[in-house]
Amino acid sequence: MLCKRVAFALLAAVAAVRAAEDSDVTQLQKDTFEDFVKANDLVLAEFYAPWCGHCKALAPEYEAAATSLKEKGIKLAKVDCTEEADLCQAFGVEGYPTLKVFRGLDNVTPYSGQRKAAGITSYMIKQSLPAVSLLTKDTLEEFKTADKVVLVAYIDADDKESNETFTAVAEKHRDAFLFGGVNDAAVAEAEGVKAPAIVLYKSFDEGKATFTEKFDAEAIEKFAKVAATPLIGEVGPETYADYMTAGIPLAYIFAETAEEREKLGSALKPIAEKYRGVINFATIDASAFGGHASNLNLKADKFPSFAIQETTKNQKFPFDQEKEITHDAIASFVEGVVAGTIEPSIKSEPIPETQEGPVTVVVAKNYEDIVLDDTKDVLIEFYAPWCGHCKALAPKYEELAALYAESEFKDQVVIAKVDATANDVPDEIQGFPTIKLYAAGGKDSPVTYAGSRSIEDFVSFIAENGKYKAAVSLKEEAGEESQAAPAASESDAHDEL
Ligand SMILES: *[C@@H]1O[C@H](CO)[C@@H](O)[C@H](O)[C@H]1NC(C)=O
């Protein structure tokens, strides 16, 4: 046990065990999880690690929320990912704590509320209410402005199919938007639409957008995503993740003052209009987030500047900083990027002349040759020079690499690392270190490592997931603690911004 040497921690652990006995939070394991989620309509589950500071801070809040939600029949559960690695991996847990809302096993959404008891309680109560509010002539007007973006479906009272489709979309995206439904033909007519139709009301740009195609979940989702994104938005801590997961490139307009952002925004607006739904456009405050320019391979001390980031392949297209940002220059730049005639810029350290240690050093320029070599199982660590967990891992990782280098698998298994801050890699990295196995014959589906950071566990991971089932035997590790260092990083150890 972790706590055996530290009396204080031991006491704390005993206290925690006691508390667990009369807790309203249900501790779940692999064999109890499914049944619990099936048996309860609405479950909030926390995936945590006992060592994680944010998890500890959340614990009393989570307990209190569980108690106040008990009478509403809303269940809170938790899963210790150091004990239940498979379960956590199955749900894509990459950082701690991760909270997810379950409505059965097929409808899982990330929890995006606050981490305080009151916030959790109100968020979950909202989750338990119907996703679509039924509106009338009298309640519609107020509803239209109840949030920055609301979607209202105008449906005939007997049109079950459209109703069901819209309701399903609303259930899925209830965290992002407010959804309303109207089944009064006169109200629809007054709004200038004919059922079935959806109107998205927004507090910006043209104020509303209308969907009149046949109701189809995917088409509605796409419509909502495009129409809800401001023509020229703003990149900041609240919007960054949405832009990165939008599935289309993001064009950044860096400028230091609000006036300049406004000015460039309106100059480029016709381009944003032309590429609506193809490329998102957003300004970014260079005085606050100027450092992000270097992630796009722009110089971070020369503004205004412009760059496009292809978010799915993580390619960067910086616009020449010696040139002036004008409508015409950007129009032809964007056209070139879309047409593929402008090459992405790739940041890379030089390829090492020789590989010095047992760990193979990967840089952007040799990434493909080494990591995607289809004849080899490649375990790769994405690290940052400033990351403490990475430094702690380094000696063990070296040792692991040495074991393979000296084994019969030396030509089949590669243990590699890449400084992900100095090299553009195609992987989306959410925290450091991130460790993945690119198995031979399976380069398009790397497996992310979520076990503990012990050599033993790395070896079983490689043996289990690699093509060559390459297990090496461990040397006696005198004095090695059985409690391994944490695997996933805490969720705030992410990239800046
Ligand atoms: C959609 O169906 C539900 C369930 O039958 C019903 O309560 C609701 O009023 C319908 N919505 C509209 C807009 O007709």
Automatic annotation (TrEMBL):
The UniProt entry's GO CC annotations, sorted and at most eight, read: endoplasmic reticulum lumen
Enzymatic reactions? Catalyzes the rearrangement of -S-S- bonds in proteins
Q: Which GO terms describe its biological process?
A: protein folding; response to endoplasmic reticulum stress
- The reply on keyword Transcription regulation is no
Identify the keywords attached in UniProt to this record, alphabetized. Disulfide bond, Endoplasmic reticulum, Isomerase, Redox-active center, Repeat, Signal
- The segments labelled Disordered in the record are 474-497
Cysteines paired by S-S bonds: 52-55, 387-390
Provide the leader sequence positions: 1-19
Per the record's keyword annotation, is Isomerase included, yes or no? yes
Return the Pfam families for the record: Thioredoxin, Thioredoxin_6
Write down the EC number: 5.3.4.1
Instruction: Enumerate the spans annotated as Thioredoxin domain.
Output: 9-130, 337-467
Tell where it localizes: Endoplasmic reticulum lumen
What PROSITE patterns does the annotation carry?
Answer: THIOREDOXIN_1, THIOREDOXIN_2
> Which one of the record's GO molecular function terms can you name?
protein-disulfide reductase activity
Q: Where is this protein chiefly located?
A: endoplasmic reticulum
Q: What are the Low complexity biased-composition ranges?
A: 481-490
Q: What does this protein do?
A: Participates in the folding of proteins containing disulfide bonds, may be involved in glycosylation, prolyl hydroxylation and triglyceride transfer.
Q: Which NCBIfam families match?
A: ER_PDI_fam (TIGR01130), pdi_dom (TIGR01126)
Question: Which protein family is named in the record?
Answer: Belongs to the protein disulfide isomerase family.
Protein name as it appears in the record: Protein disulfide-isomerase
- Record the organism: Sodiomyces alkalinus (strain CBS 110278 / VKM F-3762 / F11)
